[in-house]
Amino acid sequence: MSQSGLDDEELFGEAATEIRADVEDHLAGAREALPSASAVWDVEADNTLGVLNGLRTALAVEEVEAHLRDAKKWYTIGERADAFEDADDLADEIGRIEDVLDDLEEVSDAVADLASAIPELRGELEELHAAADEAADGTADGE
Description:
Blueprint (H helix, E strand, L loop, with lengths): L7 H26 L3 H5 L6 H11 L3 H19 L7 H55 L1
């Protein structure tokens, strides 16, 4: 069919379908970029810091954020153009992914804080115990 045979309503319908498909594709990309449950639950490490660093890696959200941003951008364009007959499912999915992303970011911040604090705590404990051992050795030698 030639372009001259297409009317504005038909073109708008095609554009609306393409916009919805873009939103759905980006939402699928965001879901795929989310870490799996096992990635945040099952870890292998030799020590606490290794566990925290592995968890921090599993909680990386940059790709999720990029896909969600694009999904929201196309959703907003579609909504403002009144291109969607029913977009409640898209809005709901965007909201669910946003909620999980907020949780991931919150947990990631907590893990980062712990990853910084644990080595400091270890150092303080080692110093305290070393000082206590030296004091005990000095007392034992002086008896």
